Amino acid sequence: MSDDKLDLTRRKALLGLGGIGAGAALGGAGTMAYFNDKEKSAGNTVTAGKLDLKIDWWQKYHQGIAGRDSSRRRLTDNPGPIFEISDAKPGDWGCGLISLHVFHNPAYVWAGCDLKKNAENGVNEPESKAEGEDDPKGRDSGTKWSGELAENIKVALLRFPLIRGEHQAANQDEYKHEIHPAESPRYPGDRNLESVNPGNLILKTTLKDLCKNKLHGGYLLDGKTNKGKDGKCFRNSSTYFYGFCWWIPKSVGNEIQSDRVKFALKFGAVQCRHLDTPSEYNPFANDDS
Questions:
Q1: 102 φ, ψ to 5°?
Q2: Which of 36, 106, 146, 241 could be a cystine partner for 160, CB 3.0 to 4.6 Å?
């Protein structure tokens, strides 16, 4: 082989090696790293708040001088009927102490009343002859709304302004004594309920008017205490006391004989926060019964 050919072959080999070197250099440029850092905010959560309204009650039924009957229900979501009277007569009366508890968040609280039945439940001879009896003997005595009892039961709703949880804690026994004194119970029809201390009279009317008008569609209760700082909102984790008294006037006669009334007291709570006009969120506003 000549020296010229050998020199040419050597040049080609060097050029080939150079090509390989350039390729390696380019490949190395593709794996170069830059300064970098990563951080993360982990465990972010959103938990919806809670609102829970619970009720308990105590009641006493007075049947003349000697006859009394009382019952109570512990704190619950389903308080059941407060009054179950089977043989009411003119002059009978009773009072209940209802306590409302709002848990977890402050809330507006409404009271409502539904009259479910005001029935004749049968018409006997004395009733059919009674003045004011509008369902004469011979008419369908099973009519749901033809009775006179609801319009002849008087009721009063009282509010006690002290609440448990305050510095001046309410004494539940004191309130029981106010609405139904143990030593000398007094017929509500003979009492000045406006002066029950420390209660405030909210409403005094007939059961029919209470359920058909006064509390029909909801009545916004006042959460203000004696300190006067709370406005309409009920504090959470506090207890608010209300008195509910009923009586059948002694002047009522035969027109209510055998009549039967069924009604529901109800309470609803809606959060206070962000509600500038609570009336727009009345839970009973659209009730039609």
A1: -105, 120
A2: 241
Rounded to whole angstroms, the Cα distance separating 221 from 245 reads: 17
Backbone angles phi, psi at 127, to 5 degrees: -70, -40
CB 121 within 8 A of CB 214: no
Residue-wise pLDDT for 205-255, tens only, equals 999 999 999 998 899 988 775 544 445 788 888 888 888 989 898 888 878
**Amino acid identity at 177:** H
Helices marked H in the chain: 3-29, 125-128, 172-179, 207-209
Structure letter (DSSP) for residue 6: H
Sheet containing 219-220, strands listed edge to edge, beginning at the edge strand earlier in sequence: 219-220, 107-119, 260-271
Quote the DSSP letter at residue 233: P
Contact 154/189 with Cβ under 8 angstroms?
A: yes
Cβ atoms 61, 69 nearer than 8 A: yes
